[in-house]
Amino acid sequence: RTFSIAVIDGDGIGPEVTAEARKVLNAALENDDATLHYTEYSLGTRHWLETGETLHDETLEKLRSHDAILFGAVGADPQDQRIPSGVIERDLLLKLRFELDHYINLRPTRTYPGVSTPLASTEDFDFVVVREGTEGPYVGNGGSLRRGTTQEIATEVSVNTAHGVRRVVADAFARAVSRRGHLTLVHKHNVLTHSGSLWRRTVEEQAALNPQVSWDYMHVDAATIHMVTNPQRFDVIVTDNLFGDILTDLAGAVSGGIGLAPSASINGAGTTPSMFEPVHGSAPDIAGRGIADPTAAILSAGLMLDHLGVKDAAGRIEQAVNAQMAEWAERNTGGGLGSAERGDAYVSRIKAL
Ligand code: NAI
Ligand code: MG
Question: Do the Cβ atoms of 280 and 298 come closer than 8 Å?
Fold first, then answer.
C-alpha cells in the first residue's frame, strides 16, 4: 500500500518538528508493507511574504488529491510588522478546515511519563475531545447593524444541522466503543435550547445504536471544573465548535505539555484528505535553534498512520514515545535535549521494539 502525503511544514519550528516526524515515520514503516510518498507544499508566512498568497485555489485542488496532510505549524512572529494579524489563520487554516470538510477535530489528551501537570492530583488520565469543526458559531453567519454607532447590534449565529451534528456524534460513539466505552456530551442546553436540544436528541439516538457505550451530559461551565478536578472521569467528550475550541486549550493545559499534544482534523467520510498537526504553533521565540520538542508532531504522525489504517506502525510510534519518555523521566535525562536528539531517540526505540 502506498499513501500519498502532502507535507505543509510551514513556519518557525514547523519545519524543525516535521523533519523529526518524518524520520520517525520512516523508522516505523521500515518493516511494514505500507509506504508513504511525500509531496511538499510551501505555505504559510514565508510563502505569503514571497508571493502575497495564502492558499491559492489551484493549490487547494492539488491538496485534495492526497491521502492525508502532515502539517507543522504556521504563523508569524507577532513582532513582525509586515504581516497583518489573522491573515494566515483565517485564509489558510480555516480555509483548509472548511474546504476539506474537516468535521472532526480530535485532540487526545493524557498524562505523559515524567511530565508534571498543573493539577493537584498526580493520577493519570486519558481522554479525547471530539470537537465539531465545520458548524456552530464559526461559520461566519452574522452581521452588524448600525455599525460604528452607539446603537450597533452585532450577531454571530450558531449553525447546527442534523447532518452535521449526527456525523460528529456518530464518530464520537465509534471512538468510545474502541476506547473505554464512555461518552460525555458537553453543551449548554439549559440556555442554548435550540441547538442544545438537537445535540441531545442526536446523542440519545446514537446511544440507542451503541448500547455498549454509557453516556452522560455536562454543561460546558461544569466541564471546565471537572477537567481540572477530576479529568479521570472523561473518556470521549463530544461537543460543538466553540465549546470544543475552548475545552481543548484547557485540555492541553491540564496535560502539562504544549510540546507534546497532537491533533487531527478529520473528514470522517474519507472524501478529502484529513490533516494531522501538533497543537502548538510556530513558536517564533525558539525557532531556528533546534530545541523545539518534536513529540507532538511525532504523535500527530502516529494519528495519521492510525487514520490511514496502518495500525501496527501507529502503535509502534505511540509505544516508542511512551517508553522513551518513561526512560528520560526515570533517569532524569530528558531536559535540554535538542529536537534531533529526541527524534533520534524515538527512532532507536522503534528499531528496538
Ligand atoms: P506557540 O504554540 O507557537 O508557542 C507558545 C509557547 O510554547 C512558546 O513559548 C513556545 O516556545 C512554546 N512551544 C510551542 N511549541 C513548542 C515545542 N514543540 N517545544 C517547546 N516549546 C514549544 O503559540 P504562540 O506563541 O501563541 O503563537 C506563535 C505563532 O504560531 C503565531 O503566529 C500563532 O498565530 C501561530 N499558531 C499557529 C498554530 C497552527 O499552525 N496550528 C496554532 C497556534 C498558534
Ligand atoms: Mg483554539
Answer: no
